[in-house]
Amino acid sequence: MGAGHAHKLYREGRSPVHTLPPHCKIAAVFCFVLVVVSTPREAVWAFGAYAVLLAGVAAAARIPAGYVLRRLLIEIPFVAFAVLMPFIAEGPRVEALGMSLSESGLWSAWNILAKGTLGVAASVLLASTTELRALLLGLQRLRMPSLLVQIASFMIRYGDVISDEMRRMRIARQSRGFEARGVRHWGVLASSAGALFIRSYERGERVHLAMVSRGYTGTMPVIDDVTASRTQWVYAAALPLTALAVCLTGWMLP
Fold first, then answer.
1. Which UniProt keywords apply (predicted)?
2. pTM above the 0.70 mark?
3. What is d(CA 193, CA 177) in angstroms, rounded to the nearest whole number?
């Protein structure tokens, strides 16, 4: 994990959120999501308060609202599932806009949309203010199993390599006059996918042998160790602790 690797979600900046150690931000987002999930769905106002908290974090990080909203589009499949729930769920029915909707389905749809959107927004803010390499170092600092961190590291490093290999294969097909236009061409695409798998597998074997020849024993050396001061931990804990106060209030209020 010695070399950097930029990713499309990261937005370079020098805000107080950017400068926080990665493991502090990861722990804060994880605790925030747990608090959001634990909030009763009937406490509608609480989810509005969580949205305000995330908006405050985005403002402190100087992340434009449009930037976050565009990246929330990733949850569209979950939105589509939530929209169907009032129609397919059972239980007491209510009339709305001339349609008969399930009351429990409406609450379930709201629960999925509110909690899912807040969780995705928190993740987007984390990715927007933390480089991939720093995220991996943060996970390692939080004592995540070393094998999982290494797998994630290799996936990130060689994702671009495989994508570039796919691009070259596509160009090679096009240079030979091939263009997929229907089911009859699926065989060629399947053969290309098989060839890509074999090439990726062989590349992985070569990389592993090269690592072993250089002394790899199952763990990656830590070149840059990240530490956090007590002040930085307190600063990062402000988000989940405030959210926890909102959650407890939501449970206590009728």
1. Cell membrane, Membrane, Transmembrane, Transmembrane helix
2. yes
3. 18
Separation CA 237–CA 88 (nearest Å): 40
Pair of tokens at residue 229:
């001061």
Q: Which amino acid is at 199?
A: R
User: DSSP labels for 203-222?
Assistant: HHHHHHHHHHHTT--SS---
CA dist 250 and 50 (Å) reads 12
The DSSP H or E segment spanning 104 is helix 103-129
Contacting residues for 116 by C-beta, under 8 A, at least 6 apart: 75, 78, 82
**Other Cβ atoms within 10 Å of 196 Cβ, number:** 14
**Quick one: how far is CA 80 from the chain centroid?**
19
Between helix 103-129 and helix 76-88 the angle, nearest 10°, is 170
Measured distance CA(75)–CA(82) in Å, rounded? 11
Which DSSP letter does residue 100 get?
E
Q: What is the DSSP letter of 72?
A: G
d(CA 92, CA 111) in angstroms, rounded, equals 18
Asked if 31 contacts 246 with a C-beta cutoff of 8 angstroms, the reply is no
pLDDT values of the chain reduced to their tens digit, one per residue, 254 residues: 444 445 677 888 888 999 999 999 999 999 999 999 999 989 999 999 999 999 999 999 999 989 899 888 888 888 888 888 877 777 777 777 777 777 788 888 888 899 999 999 999 999 999 988 888 888 888 888 888 888 888 887 787 788 888 888 888 888 888 777 777 778 888 888 888 888 888 888 888 888 888 887 777 666 666 788 889 999 999 999 999 999 999 888 76
Q: What would the two tokens of residue 159 be?
A: 């994702």
Distance CA 171, CA 242 (A): 53
